[in-house]
Amino acid sequence: MPASIGDAAEKGCDMQQQAGGGATRKFNETMFRLDSRVAIVTGAGGGIGGAIARVFANVGAVVACLDVDADRARSTAADIEAGGGRAIGVACDVGSELDTLSAVARVVADLGRPTVLVNVAAVMDRSGTVLDIDLQEWERVHRVNLTGAYLMSRAVLPSMIKVGGGSVIHTSSILGRIGRAGRVSYTSTKAALLQLGRTMALDHAAQGVRVNTLSPGTVETDRVAYRFKELSPLQREALVSRIPLKRFGQTEEIAMAALFLASDASSFVTGTDLLVDGGGYET
Ligand SMILES: NC(=O)c1ccc[n+]([C@@H]2O[C@H](COP(=O)([O-])OP(=O)(O)OC[C@H]3O[C@@H](n4cnc5c(N)ncnc54)[C@H](O)[C@@H]3O)[C@@H](O)[C@H]2O)c1
């Protein structure tokens, strides 16, 4: 690790990204910017991942939009490019080691070494108890939601460490902290991501890598609309009324929290979980 800012500059490495670096940190307006940093966002074809990719590009990041759905990955990247940002869309199944390694190799070759990784990709579960959920369904959900974050971290960390560190964010959920009847596979993946994040934070602090999790409450995305489509207006109203801020979240509100964790504004934050849920945790 470079011993001083001068050292860091000489080595072409941004001291501001060093989690363990001792540089004095004073507020300035560029702390929330990601100028020229290469950021990988998985699940970037979806609601929250797409918003994170767009917000990061807006503050100067070069964004690799990864998704198993190649069209959706390319569509988010095309949107960013149309708005004057820089992005590429990459097809990648995060549950496949081969896919994660080749996607990251392409990002490094086309854009440079990533210093930000946001693991957003996830699948919904089929509702059921342990008696209803067969092993195949259990493994399908774990493969993407949990193993995907592990495989992406394995693929990205060597490059990130080579440039002095960076920020890794796993997307958990309020359902990683509380139980929810009939959601055994999804809730267990989201709880495990919290521990993956905390332990990675300890393991890689000395290498300048900060690792945190982000836990959204209910956010209005297509997947949530699909899940709620059976609800009557009255049932929906009852759900909203239990949230202290009396509404569901917006994708951009999750993206702004991700930006905090990705940027130098959170330079002393690692191993933590940022809950963004409108105050609904205790309800
Ligand atoms: N929307 C919410 O209310 C909410 C609440 C809490 C947590 N979350 C979490 O936020 C994240 C995003 O949720 P969303 O609502 O935007 O979902 P979404 O369904 O809109 O997006 C998920 C994206 O992941 C992609 N994906 C699925 N399997 C993949 C795989 N194997 N490899 C790569 N990409 C894959 C999908 O194609 C999709 O584009 C998820 O991790 C979810 O668990 C969402």
UniProtKB/TrEMBL annotation:
Statement: the UniProt record of this protein carries the keyword Hydrolase: no
Keywords: Oxidoreductase
A Pfam family that the UniProt record links to this protein: adh_short_C2
Listed InterPro entries: NAD(P)-bd_dom_sf, Sc_DH/Rdtase_CS, SDR_fam
UniProt keyword annotation of tRNA-binding present: no
SUPFAM superfamilies (alphabetical): NAD(P)-binding Rossmann-fold domains
GO molecular function (one): glucose 1-dehydrogenase [NAD(P)+] activity
Region entry Disordered, spans: 1-21
Signal peptide: none
Gene3D superfamilies in UniProt: NAD(P)-binding Rossmann-like Domain
Top-level taxonomic group: Bacteria
Entry EC number(s): 1.1.1.47
Family: Belongs to the short-chain dehydrogenases/reductases (SDR) family.
Protein name: Glucose 1-dehydrogenase
Species this chain originates from: Rhodoferax sediminis
